[in-house]
Amino acid sequence: MASIVQFENVGLRYGTGAETLSDVSFTLNTGSFYFLTGPSGAGKTSLLKLLYLSQRPSRGLIRLFGEDAVTMPRARLPALRRRIGVVFQDFRLVPHLSAYDNVALPLRIGGYEEREIETPVNEMLAWVGLKDRASARPATLSGGEQQRVAIARAVIGRPEILVADEPTGNVDPDMAARLLHLFDGLNKLGTTIVVATHDIHLLSRIPHANMMRIDRGRLSDPTGALRYPPRRSEMGGSE
Ligand SMILES: Nc1ncnc2c1ncn2[C@@H]1O[C@H](COP(=O)(O)OP(=O)(O)OP(=O)(O)O)[C@@H](O)[C@H]1O
């Protein structure tokens, strides 16, 4: 199976303190589903930030879509970022836009015509249970409703990679199951999914998911699924 993301001996240090991430090495296979777990403060969000290119590592190699994301000129980063859907832990909805317009944003940026946008946006809002809240601004939505808008916005453009940071932290168990089902559907269409979560109940809902666990900035690899470098058989050769 081809790899879509490779980290090799990645370290991240904020300022002059100790490293927040150390010697992080893993490979994500195209089209696979990954859960990232670990205690609060372990470095999950930091690792995801490196993955969606909002943070550069202090050391190590990161390859994304086959390209070296560390030495790449900054001007190239936005094009790469557009291939990644992100559900931020703090949602980051555009405050002056309605739920509908927040969800439509990636399609508008992608150059789609309004007539091509309306049906998928309405369908996506209905899927996350917000059909009746399409015209509401984020400030008038509950935390769980904002989270669902953020998820709809992240998945609407069918990104190649979906990165979600605690995407079910503000919703009830039924909605969490529904949202995970949405991620699973997207995964079946080929999107590589990475979900950071504290919620161990989510893990059993995607039996084919790979587990990544991070503790005090170091990745442990309980399943052996994240070897770096990948086996030759995973790169199309034989062992
Ligand atoms: N911008 C920053 N500047 C300095 N330190 C930071 C910054 N962002 C995160 N940290 C520190 O890095 C460590 C890891 O934080 P991170 O948010 O990645 O953990 P996490 O596993 O996502 O935690 P949680 O589950 O609570 O969201 C923490 O000690 C945090 O204080």
From TrEMBL:
<dbReference type="Pfam" id="PF00005">
    <property type="entry name" value="ABC_tran"/>
</dbReference>
<keyword id="KW-0472">Membrane</keyword>
<dbReference type="InterPro" id="IPR005286">
    <property type="entry name" value="Cell_div_FtsE"/>
</dbReference>
<feature type="domain" description="ABC transporter">
    <location>
        <begin position="5"/>
        <end position="239"/>
    </location>
</feature>
<dbReference type="InterPro" id="IPR017871">
    <property type="entry name" value="ABC_transporter-like_CS"/>
</dbReference>
<dbReference type="InterPro" id="IPR003439">
    <property type="entry name" value="ABC_transporter-like_ATP-bd"/>
</dbReference>
<protein>
    <recommendedName>
        <fullName>Cell division ATP-binding protein FtsE</fullName>
    </recommendedName>
</protein>
<comment type="subunit">
    <text>Homodimer. Forms a membrane-associated complex with FtsX.</text>
</comment>
<dbReference type="GO" id="GO:0051301">
    <property type="term" value="P:cell division"/>
</dbReference>
<dbReference type="GO" id="GO:0005524">
    <property type="term" value="F:ATP binding"/>
</dbReference>
<keyword id="KW-0547">Nucleotide-binding</keyword>
<dbReference type="InterPro" id="IPR015854">
    <property type="entry name" value="ABC_transpr_LolD-like"/>
</dbReference>
<dbReference type="InterPro" id="IPR003593">
    <property type="entry name" value="AAA+_ATPase"/>
</dbReference>
<keyword id="KW-1003">Cell membrane</keyword>
<keyword id="KW-0131">Cell cycle</keyword>
<dbReference type="InterPro" id="IPR027417">
    <property type="entry name" value="P-loop_NTPase"/>
</dbReference>
<comment type="function">
    <text>Part of the ABC transporter FtsEX involved in cellular division. Important for assembly or stability of the septal ring.</text>
</comment>
<keyword id="KW-0067">ATP-binding</keyword>
<feature type="region of interest" description="Disordered">
    <location>
        <begin position="215"/>
        <end position="239"/>
    </location>
</feature>
<comment type="similarity">
    <text>Belongs to the ABC transporter superfamily.</text>
</comment>
<keyword id="KW-0132">Cell division</keyword>
